[in-house]
Target: Amine oxidase
Amino acid sequence: MSVFPAAKEDLSPLFGCAARFKTRRFAIFFVLTVSAAAFLLFAPGLRQLRSLDIGVGEVASVDDPVVPGRCADTSAIPATAPHENVWKNFDVHEAVAIRRWLWAYKDANGRGFNLTSETAATDLDNSISLIETFSPPKADVLAYFDHDGESPQRFAKIVLMLGRASPPAISQYLLGPLPSIISALTLSAAPLELRPLKHIYTRPDVPYTARIFPQNVSYTEKFLLGLMAPLHNATQDLLGGVVGWGSGAGQDFISPPTILFSGTTPFSYDGSFRRMWLQLKQNTPGSYLKMLDMNLYVDLTSMDPAEWYLIRMVYNRQVFATTEEFLEAYTNGTLKRSTRPDEPASEDTWAGRERKGTKRDLDERAGPRQVSFNGPRFRVDEDNQWVSWMGWSFYLSFARDMGLSLWDVRFRGERILYEISPQEALAVYSGSDPHQGSTVFLDRGFGMGITTRSLIVGYDCPYEALMLPAITHTESGTLLRQDAICVFERDSGKPLSRHTGYLRGETGATKGYEFVVRTISTVGNYDYMFDYTFQLDGTIEVRISASGYLQGAWWDDTQMSYGTKIRDTYMGSVHDHVINYKFDFDIAGTRNSLMAISLENEVVQLPWFEDDWGQDVRQQKIVRKIVTNESEALLDYPKNYEGAYVIVNQEELNRWGYRTDALLINRSARGYAIHPGMSPIRLTNLDSKRTENNVNFAKHHLAVSRRKESEPCSSSTWNINLPGAPPVDFYKFFDGESIEQEDLTAWVNLGTHHIPRAEDSPMTLTNIATSSVLLTPFNFNDWDPAMESMNAILLTVPEPGEEWTGDENGVEIEYCLPPRLKKFSYPVLTTFEEDGTPGDPARVHQMRRQAESYHAIFAASDFQTSKAIQPRT
Ligand SMILES: [Cu+2]
Model:
C-alpha cells in the first residue's frame, strides 16, 4: 500500500485554474528523503506538513492511528556472479601461501632471497614489499567470459626490496601460473615459475634510491634528531617549539616533540641521488597547515645512514651551509629573525574538526535521509565482488597503488568497458620557499589502496549502503580494511527526463535514480573520494572530490603570488591536482575508433531566403573525423567545448546508421562520448624538470592509445621519485600505431587548479574541490533506454472540467516502518601476521604512523620507541 493519501493540488498557474492534478502519490518526491522521525507525518489523512515550531521529541498526532508494519530488509540481495572474479586480490590464506613459497624459494644455484620479515625489515634488509593479483591477459578473460573458455591462469605480482643485494635493488616478479587452490601452493608445484616482471615498464629497472617508504623510519628519525639536537634552544626561541623528545638539548627525552618535519618528493631526478627538502611544522592538530619558517635539504643517498648529511638549511630566506653556521649567526646576532608563529595555545582548535560558531535555525534536528521502503534494488555476489543494478553489472578489484578498479562493466548485457581504473593522482605546488617550490606528489607511490580508509556510515555513505572490505599485502603486512567500499542507490532528487504537453503520451517524468560505488583514501593531508555513478540511460559519471587539509606554508609577503593567507602566519599554497583514469572501452566489441567531432562556423547562401536578412546565412555545422593514429591522439578538449570525442565501432551502426564512403565515417556508428564534467583540467606547467617525463599523461586533457598488455598503467609506484627517467613514460605509448578499429584505451584526466581560500580552513570542501567526466551513450542505442524505467509517471491530459490522472506502472512506495539505525561503530583496521594469524593490535598504531608518511615525520612515533633513539654525537 502507498503511504500517500488521495489528494488534489493546483498545478502551476501556467496551466490556468481549471487544470487539476490527481494521483495518490503526488508527493513522491518527498518520500525518499524523509527522516525516520518525520515518517509518521505522512500518514493517510494528513493534509499538510506540521509547522516548523514543533519541539523536538514531541509526538506527532495523526488522523490514522494504524501503525505500519516493518519495511523489507534493506540488505543487498545475494546473487551469483556469471563468472569468477579473475581480478580479485588474494585473501589472507593465499597471501600466506605465496609468502611461504617466497621464503622457501631457491634458484638454480641454491640461493634464496634471504628475507627478513616485512614488519621487522630495515632498508638494509631483503623483504617482501608486495604480493598482489596480476591481471590476466584480456584475451584469456574474454575467452572465459564470452566463449565458455577456461578460467584464466592466475599470477601474482611480487615486489621485493633487496637492501642486502649489491647493488641494492627493487625487484619485481611474476609468480605463476598458480594452482587453482592457491592456499595449497607448494614449492614443488609445477609448472610454477618466478620470472622478472619487466614488460609493463618503459624503464625496466627501478633504482633503490627511488624507494618510497623507509622500511624502518627510525633511521631517518635518528638522523634528524642528531641534526636538530644542537638547535634545540634556537628553535624554541625562534619557532616556539623543539624537534625531538626532551627539554634539555635533546638529551633527556622528557616531553614529546612540539615540532615535526614535513618532507617533499621527488627524492631524485633519475635515481642518481636521494635527497629531500624537510620543512618544520607545529605538532598540533592540523599540523599540515602549520608550516614553520625553517627548511632543511638533506642527502639520504648512502646505504649507510651514518653518511647522510645536511646540504643546506634556510631560515627567513637566509641560506646556511651547516647547522653550525646557522647557530653562529643566531648567537652573534647577525641572524635576521622571522615573525614568531601563531602560538598553538592561543587557538589550538582552529584547525580541528570540533564544531565552531553559532548554531543555525533548526539545526538540532537530523536532516533528511534516504530510505528504500520497498527493499534494495541491487544484487551482490560478495565473494566475487560483483554487483548488478538496473541493467548495469560489474566486478570490483582492489590493489595497493590506486585502490578500487571496476571490470567488465556491462549495460543491459553488453560490455561497455573492460576496465575503469584510476592511474595516478598528481599534486604540483608552487611557492617562494624551498618546500612548496619543490613539491610534486604522485600518490600512487604512497599507495592510495593502502591509504583507503573505512567509511563513516551515515556521513561518507548513506545509512543503507552496502559496505565491502578491501585487502592488501604490502610492506605493512596484510591489512584488511572493513567498510572500505560502499555501494548504494540514491534518488538524484531530479527527473532524468520530463515534459508537460497536451497530446497523448507527452506529459510525465522518469525518476533520476543513480547507483554509486565509492571509496575514500586519506593520503597524508588529503582525502580523495572516488565516485563511480551509474545512471539509467547508460551514463557513467566518474568523479573525484578532495577534502582534508591543504598543504600549508609559512606566510610572508613574498608568498603573495603563490597562495592565500589563512591565518596570521600560515597560508595555503596554490597547486594543481591531476588524476588520471584508464577507460578500456569495448563499444559493441573490441574493434573501436576515436571520432573527433568539432563544431565549425560557416557562411552559406541558400536560394530560398528572402532579402530581409541578407543572402548570407551564418551557422554552425558538425565536422566528424576519425583520428587514425596514436600520435594524433594526445588531445585537449576544443575551445569553448565546441565538439566531442566519441569512442565508436565504425562497423556497428544503430538502427538509423548509414555509410558515407567519401568520408569513411559511419554516421550513427554506435558509440560512447567522453563528456567533460566539472573542472576537466590538465597540468598548468608543462616544462618543470620535476615533472619532466613521469607525468606525461597529465599534460593533455585526454589521450587514446591502442590497448596493450604491456601498457596497463599510465604511471607506476616509482614514477614519483624518477621524473627524469620514470619506469613508465606515458609518451612512449604513442608511437604512431593505427588506432582505427582497434581495441582502444582512453586515458582521461580530472583535477582542479586549487587556488586556496580562507574557507579551505580547516578543511577543503568536496563541493568545489571536485572534478568529473561522463561516459555517455552516443548513438549506442536507438533511443533513450531509460524509457524502460517503471519508476516513471505518465500523465493523461484531462478533458475540460476533468482532473489529471497519473499512471506509475503499478509501482507503489510501501507504507512501512524502516528499521532502527544501527548504533554508531567504526571498524578497527585488521592486521595479520605473516603466517596468517591475527596481528598485534599495536601494529595498527604503526599503520597510523605510516599513513602520514613523510608529511609528519615523528608525528605518530610512540614515546617508548622514540626514547630508545639516541641523538648522534
Ligand atoms: Cu588541493
In short: The chain is about 10% helix and 35% strand. The chain has a mean pLDDT of 87. The two ends are 80 Å apart (CA to CA).
